[in-house]
Amino acid sequence: MMFFLFLIFLIFCSFGVISSRNPIHSILFLVCVFILSSALLFCLEIEFLGLSFILIYVGAIAILFLFVVMMLDLKINDKLFNRLQYDLVTYFLIFFFFLELALPLSSLSSFTSSLQYSNFDWINWPLQIETFTNIQAVGQVLYSYYFILFLLAGFILFVSIIGSLMLTLTLNKTGEMRS
Amino acid sequence: MFFSLILILKIFLIIIPLLLSVAYFTLAERKIMASIQRRRGPNVIGYLGLLQPLADGLKLFIKETILPTSANILIFLLAPLLTFFLSLMGWVVIPFGENLVVANVNIGLLYLFAISSLSVYGIILSGWSSNSKYAFLGSLRSASQMVSYEVSIGFIVISVVLCCGSFNLSEIIFSQSKVWYCLPLFPMFLIFFVSALAETNRHPFDLPEAEAELVSGYNVEYSAMGFALFFLGEYANMLLMSSLTTILFFGGWLPILNIIPFNFIPGFVCFGGKICIFVILFCWIRAALPRYRYDQLMSLGWKTFLPVSIGWLFFSSSILICFNFLPF
Fold it and tell me: Is the Cβ of B235 closer than 8 Å to some Cβ of chain A?
């Protein structure tokens, strides 16, 4: 019940993101989308992921968005022709996206069973005798079966950090680095 | 029906004492600063000025709310409400004594973190929506200050969590029954407390209070209740940070020594006393120290606290692994 309530609000807010004229308003709608999606995760009893959603997306990324958009001097372009032009393209894309989603969803049972299929066929013996908290469960899977993906994600973040550092550094003629 | 009634009662049992303690926090601050500067402080209203906070609240309540003409009214009104409610929301997971907590959740520390990262929005939105350059720049200043000190607080919290093996605040306190974490993690305690000062926009990092040189901060355009809500939110956040320091480093409700005369003190009294020490420290620092410049503040956060806390995280985790002290 709560799940579907949040879902309806979520869809409403995500329409708000693309339809509001003021960029600050659309970022605030985006923040609402993040919070509501973490509320969905709470409904599914995945509290850890929900809270990390709030921490990372709302607490860091959306604030950076907000900073950048506030500092830019944006002219609000509100001509009717522009709106029609862009909105038509947007709704066209949305339609195709939903079509793509709907195709596998129509054969829902086979789709979910294909998701659940995995190469590792093991009995999780510790689970048979005791229960885990959210964080322990995530950690056990993350550091054992998906450790390569985890390492790769870390490397990608590292490369992006180095890249942004290199963009902000300016080199002197002597090759001396100066921040 | 009965269950929801009890829940509402619980919520009021937290909120009303919290608001009262915020009110008397302001009085305590004025009194302590006055006695440091050899003045009397407020002493006219009520016995020894004890009704002063109520009079201040009444004054702010009956003042006129001024809405700037070019402000974004909805967000302008929303921002102080957001700050106030978020500062109340954090108290749900704080354990006041053994089993004396509204929601004993597994990830209480992460919850507190998420709440405190949300409370930046109140500040940013208030600055932007008042449509004034001073408020806007002030809000950017405060927001970036809070965000940057949150990072080092996060690393310190992780090093505490490594020592006790749980995000649950009650379990963090239980794990300190042998020794409080302020002894083994003493440098982290110092950094955490200074970061808490910066996180709550307090002295010596209180740039929003710098009226003379920076035209105050994000709340210049607010008057009456809007200002009062910001004020209450700020002081409730200060109390929350000092209770968090108590929980993480000073053993929460645990007595000072686990022997007979100290054992009889009830847990919540112990907890309150420890919070009071930090409250006095907050006021003392405000009276004693000069204000930091903004660039010094940022360089202290990013270039000193962050490397030290990351280094301490590696150090403590390697010590824990070396001696097989890991709690799980």
Answer: no
Nearest residue of A to residue B167, measured between CA atoms: A135
Structure tokens at B15: 């909120």
The backbone region for B132, taken as left when phi is positive above 0, alpha when psi lies in -120 to 50, beta otherwise, is beta
**pTM for this one?**
0.85
List CB contacts (< 8 A) between B107 and chain A. 47-48, 51, 134-135
Q: Give the pLDDT confidence of B264-306 residue by residue, as tens digits.
A: 888 888 899 999 999 999 999 988 888 888 888 889 989 999 9
Write out the DSSP string of B135-187. Answer: HHHHHHHHHHHHHHHHHHHHHHHHHHHHHH--S-HHHHHHTTSSS-TTTTTHH
**Main-chain phi, psi angles of A2, to 5 degrees:** -60, -40
Beta-sheet strands, E only, within chain B: none
> Which of B224, B199, B236 lies closest to B22, judged by CA?
B236
User: Which tokens belong to B92?
Assistant: 């749900």
Name, in order, each residue with C-beta under 8 angstroms of B175's C-beta and a sequence gap of 6 or more.
B163, B164, B165, B166, B327
Contact A135/B128, CB-based, under 8 Å? Answer: no
* CA gap A80, A29 in Å, rounded: 22
Beta-bridged to residue B47, according to DSSP, are: none
Confidence of residue A179 (pLDDT cuts 50, 70, 90): very low
Return the pLDDT at B136: 85
Cα–Cα distance measured from residue A51 to residue A29, given in angstroms and rounded to the nearest whole number: 19
> Closest Cα partner for A134 from B145, B168, B321?
B168
Contacts of B42 (CB under 8 A, 6+ apart): B27, B30, B31, B34, B49, B52
Answer yes or no: do A31 and B121 touch at CB < 8 A: yes
| Residue to test with chain B: of A66, A76, A161, most B Cβ within 10 A | A66
